[in-house]
Amino acid sequence: MARFFNGKEVELLAPTGTFEIFKQVIGENCDAVYFGGPSLNMRLMRKGFNFSLEEITEAVKIAHGLGKKVYVTVNNLLNEGELEEAQAYLRFLESAGPDAIIVQDFAVLSLVREMGLNIKVHSSVMMNVHNVEMVRALQEMGVTRVVTSREMDLMTTRYLQQATGMELEYFVHGDMCSVHGANCYFSSMVFGMSSNRGKCLKPCRWDYRVKKDGNVYPAEYPLAVKDMFMYEHIPELIHGGITSFKIEGRMRDAAFVIMLVKAYGDAIDRYINDPVGFDRSRDTKLLHENRKRDFSTGYAFGRPGLSNINRRYEGTGKFYSTGKVFSTPTEERELGEKRVEAIREALVAVAQEKKGAGRQNGVVAGISVHVNNMAQAKAALEAGADHLYLSGDVFEPDRPFTKEDVKELAALKGNAKLYLGLPRMMTEQHFDLYEGLLFGERLPIDGLMVTNLGAIRKFVGKGYPLVGDFNLNVYNRLSADFYRGLGVGRLTASMELPLKDLAGLLAHAPGPLEAIVHGSPAIMYMEHDLYENAEVYQAIAEEDNHYVDNSILVLKTDKGENPVYRDVHGRNHLMMAKELCLMPVLKELLEAGLSVFRIEGATYKPEQLAEIVRSYKAALANPDAARDQFGRMTPVYAGYTLGVLQFDGGSASGAAGAGEEASANEAEAAVSRA
Ligand code: SF4
């Protein structure tokens, strides 16, 4: 089944969480369905959801018999232990013959190519594709369809499609995230449950209060977004270059999915048949009456602001088939001696394994520091930083680093290496700006810190060595190899590797590896501007921030305060409540082969940052003294945490690792979206 409007294909793509749902939905007015298999996809923890291998084979046969398409989600980040499983699974999928697989981790793309599999690949929304360079890079790798970033408007999709000819898929209905795809690490940090591995416990649905300038605002659920609703905008989607209209909802029951398929399918047919007389809202009332949350058109027509935030039934669990909320506010775990010992043991085992196999990488270790302004940059250099990253997402009220700043730091840096960071997400305008800056007079820098595939394609081989930032989400040796193959010299490990997965990566990743070891890194990166709350709502109380200046907005629960910084591009960065501190395991990280120890310094005062850098320098010079150094350090924020190293991880099925204290309903309820 295929539909066309003015020669352009239009596909209605429906979710089917189970084979039973598939059998009921496939005969309805959709052109294609998507689902996950028994492993390596984003919804592994609800019993009975996802397809068995036999069901995949059967479903493909049934769908093809009806002239419809099937896409299978293989869209998790994979840990080392899952790479082998992935090979067997991909071989099976090739024989089952779905029309494509939907992929997040470049390791899967590498395997498909290495194994010579005849299987089409679509890039998942979790690849966060958002610029032409990214699309071109994916095209060159053989990807045939891109699921666009959720924050992409329909003017941009039209431009991307026309510039590249790539087939685009767009979420038209259902549950959305408030954070950029693959840039949400909150659930990992608090629960050890990665949203990039299908285990998100949805801290975005907690009831926070917003605090700013000493005022408390009654912004309930300020991160909880409404459901996407593009039913009334079929013409704009088609005009926007969208081929595939994707309905979210692999956890929804058959009756609900069928209602959506009937409504959207009928609307598409009516529009194709009579585009001028098309009634946009024939089933609006039906869909509205049966909605889960309130509706929004998300970012389809530009930034929706606070109108994208949902209140209806938030905090009740009414949206979910379990009837329970995913999680309740939970404190980041405090660094503790018992956990430190467990981490040391695991890292010592890595060092022994590498030694036994003759695989020590023998690089000289160093300290890198990510800074937001000149005062921090100078403090870090004076304290002995070996690598300095100038942020590409400078937090207000600081301003972006100027050419003059760069030249001044280049003159000061001595043997340290100076890198210019690029924005985490780059629009076409960002590419213009950085092309103008970098392709003219050569900047006196030692390289660029790149944050997305498009930037790698654009700037590789242009005279500036590349370092890959943590948000490339390097989780396994194959994705590390993939980026190295593209010309990225040094890679930063994913920020959300629990202990077993970090150990696996350190044991197997070739080449120099960097990791964030200290600071309060951003665990949510979003287009949504929380600062609007303080402009729109009337304050209900007065209260100072506990750890950061009152000018910084914080999200507060009874379990802590997360500062939120707004960058010069207008995007928000929500930080951890505590400080990550891996000083107590520095010696073992070093021996396990970590090359560069990153301090996320953007939120510290210069003197605080200098003190931290000096402590790490001293510890690196004398690793046996790292414990003493730690004893002399005082946390700036709400205490120290080992971040995701508080958790063991290491399994595909998401079973809680030793030392985890999963909340009562989390194992049952932990699901996320494709
Ligand atoms: S990944 Fe999405 S659902 Fe999970 S916490 Fe982040 S924004 Fe919320």
Oligomer: single chain
Helix content: 25-40%
Work out the helix count.
Answer: 22
Q: Which small-molecule ligands are present, each listed once?
A: iron/sulfur cluster
Rg over alpha carbons: 24 Å
- What overall form do the CA principal axes indicate? globular
- Class by helix and strand content? alpha/beta
Q: Span between N and C termini?
A: 24 Å
Mean pLDDT across every amino acid position: 93
Which strand-content bin applies to the residues?
Answer: 15-25%
The count of strands amounts to 28
Low-confidence stretches: 652-674
**Strand numbers in spatial order across the main sheet:** 2-3-4-5-6-7-8-12
The description of the largest β-sheet is:
8 strands, parallel, barrel
Detail the topology: elements first, then pairings.
Layout: E1 3-5, E2 8-15, H1 19-25, E3 32-36, H2 53-65, E4 69-74, H3 82-96, E5 100-103, H4 106-114, E6 121-123, H5 132-140, E7 145-147, H6 154-164, E8 167-174, H7 186-191, E9 209-212, E10 215-217, E11 227-229, H8 234-239, E12 242-247, H9 254-273, H10 284-289, E13 295-296, H11 337-356, E14 366-371, H12 374-382, E15 387-390, H13 403-412, E16 417-421, H14 428-438, E17 447-450, H15 453-459, E18 466-468, H16 477-485, E19 488-492, H17 499-508, E20 513-519, E21 522-526, H18 532-536, E22 541-542, E23 553-557, E24 560-566, E25 572-575, E26 579-581, H19 586-592, E27 596-600, H20 606-621, H21 626-632, E28 640-641, H22 666-669
Parallel strand pairs: 2-3, 2-12, 3-4, 4-5, 5-6, 6-7, 7-8, 8-12, 11-13, 14-15, 14-27, 15-16, 16-17, 17-18, 18-19, 19-20, 20-27, 26-28
Antiparallel strand pairs: 1-2, 8-11, 9-10, 9-23, 10-22, 20-26, 21-25, 23-24, 24-25
Helix pairs in contact: 1-9, 2-3, 3-4, 4-16, 5-15, 11-17, 11-19, 12-20, 20-21
The chain binds iron/sulfur cluster.
Iron/sulfur cluster binds at residues 177-179, 184, 186-187, 195, 200, 202-204, 672.
